[in-house]
Amino acid sequence: MRTENLEEIERRLTRIKVIYTDIDGTLVGPGGSLFTDPDGTLTLKMARAVLKALEAGIDVFMVSGRTGERLKTIARILGFRNYAAELGSEIIYDLGSKVIHNIKDIDLKKGQQPLDWIKERGALDLIFEEFPGKIRYHTPFSETCQNSALLIGNVEVKRANQILTEHGLAALRLADNGLISPVPDFPHPHCYHLLPASAGKRSAVKKDKEIRGLRTEELVGIGESIEDIEISSEVGIYFVVRNGAEEDARVMRTANEQKNVFLLDYRMGLAWAEAIDILERLGKI
Questions:
Q1: What's the whole-model pTM score?
Q2: Domain 114-196: which topology?
Q3: Which residues belong to the signal peptide in this entry (predicted)?
Q4: CA angle 80, 85, 91 (to 5 degrees)
Q5: Residue 61 · residue 84 · CB < 8 Å
Q6: How many whole angstroms from its chain centre is CA 110?
Q7: What does pLDDT average to in each consecutive run of 10 residues of the chain (285 residues)?
């Protein structure tokens, strides 16, 4: 990373209290392994970086499209405590002892889940009809979602959200959570969430800041998708892993345009370790 970028990072941050991080394609490598680099080689670099952050007392706060139960499993293994699930639609503290629902503008009946509301309004049918054969449920992972419909495919998000609005469903949005591993029917698929428009990774971080009284200059984000980078407005510095910019021109453009967003030299977990190394060298952890 260039010297002028390091100077800007140093200027924008105090000692770090929280790192908001994506998981898939960011912290972990191919197949979701913490011990595999992007080329499939076994390494301890990511594990050492996580340990370094935890030893410094930093809250490594996962912000992911995964469900709360799936994130709880990861958190217990890695020593994390807090996370935002299903693209920020719920915020979970201390492995589930406190859960904050980050959803508004939809009228849920008693005991009704947001996904039930989405299905009842016909929103999924609209998306499937508009993009036949281009998007479907991301099974089996979609089967345990409660706050959003987890989908896989290749569609134009702007058009999808236009369709929702035209049918009186502006309270919902389709969000692109980035490129994921190929499947037989989609060689270059993206992961999507159909969820309440009020929910998102950025709004979850904003709410967490309010709840815990955190200051922007104490916070760092790391991610790879265009949805991840929305967090940049809530943190002092946002790091983009190289694979995110390689896979999506919008990510590269944002990394070049926003003053607090910096593109890392490495990909996936190696980039995560690079970010921790930068913060340590600058005395921020």
A1: 0.95
A2: Hypothetical Protein Ta0175; Chain: A, domain 2 (3.90.1070)
A3: none
A4: 75
A5: yes
A6: 29
A7: 89 98 93 93 97 98 96 97 97 97 89 94 97 97 96 97 97 93 94 96 98 98 94 97 91 90 96 98 96
